[in-house]
Amino acid sequence: xxxxxxxxxxxxxxxxxxxxxxxxxxxxxxxxxxxxxxxxxxxxxxxxxxxxxxxxxxxxxxxxxxxxxxxxxxxxxxxxxxxxxxxxxxxxxxxxxxxxxxxxxxxxxxxxxxxxxxxxxxxxxxxxxxxxxxxxxxxxxxxxxxxxxxxxxxxxxxxxxxxxxxxxxxxxxxxxxxxxxxxxxxxxxxxxxxxxxxxxxxxxxxxxxxxxxxxxxxxxxxxxxxxxxxxxxxxxxxxxxxxxxxxxxxxxxxxxxxxxxxxxxxxxxxxxxxxxxxxxxxxxxxxxxxxxxxxxxxxxxxxxxxxxxxxxxxxxxxxxxxxxxxxxxxxxxxxxxxxxxxxxxxxxxxxxxxxxxxxxxxxxxxxxxxxxxxxxxxxxxxxxxxxxxxxxxxxxxxxxxxxxxxxxxxxxxxxxxxxxxxxxxxxxxxxxxxxxxxxxxxxxxxxxxxxxxxxxxxxxxxxxxxxxxxxxxxxxxxxxxxxxx
Length: 485
What we know:
The protein is an all-alpha fold. Helix content is about 80%, strand content about 0%. Helix 2 packs antiparallel against helix 4 (about 70-105).
């Protein structure tokens, strides 16, 4: 049983590592085969595509996850039907936006590059969502296979097109090939055939569950893409290229982190709903552990960024110590306000409240836009975003208070306490010149890691034992139906 559990968790960890590694490989290739302008163009395409996709994201597979097992096939077919309609609408939206966005970001003569993004949502709408629903039973290997193969094919095509043309069309080729291969593999690896249904009571339930997540997607788009669009518009494509590398090395890897934290927490809560004491213990464990993970992640970025970026991506990609400090605070706050709040609200059906919480970064982005207009520097935008993330964390903790129960105090205490670490270390690196070389930074980081490890052992051991104590029915297996008496 333990070997099976380790195998499943290993597949999830590898899947998260893949989602971190692929953007790095893609960025390394693009920075090496494209010049500064073409790389900035590719960053503008990526930001536009990511923004529209996230704004219109409905996370339909999570609706299937939350539906009872006896209605699984009906829920899956309904999700496919809604996904197909979404794909058609988003494709039309890309076509409508391609000319004005092209004129605003690059030049009107290059608008057709943005129109090439239109087929992507339509292709992705044909994905068999069953591979994502396997998460309910801790099955991640099919997703891992689809991810590895599709990204591998996309990267190979991107490299070939990049070497051949030296233009932003290398990124477009990657996106299209990856989407086609991934969709094909979801049909091959799924056990339930792809069916589409747009009638019945589940349609209304699915829309009520998923439509608020479009507002949530707006907040996520602002969080991950809006800043890039602002940088491109106010500071130019070459600064956008530098910022794209900063975001890749700081925030993008959190997608892999969330890929690990989200499914584990979601499945843990779903499988403990009939055991209130275990459910509460898991909430307390997650509320304490996530800020520690966030602090370790932010510290790693602050220690490695100044040496890592130019060594991997080229000498032109150098960030200031102030930029590194501000970005470290942003990633810490984003992780803390995302989990376990997102898992709790999704598990309890609070998608509307989740959407409200994720709109708060708009305040920071608006403040950042004002500051960068007054003082056109990258750090101006980042300072405004830090303020927005603090407001968003407060809003998230307030909204989820009733659903966290006794774990709310743990979440507030941990998120505020561990904020001190990345703040203090970032200020230290900014103000003490002798810490500028890599080895002194590494020594400071290792010292902080020891403090985090000791603290984790002290405050996580007891809730971990309570949350995952042995039971007759293992959480690593789906609950079996009891025989009728």
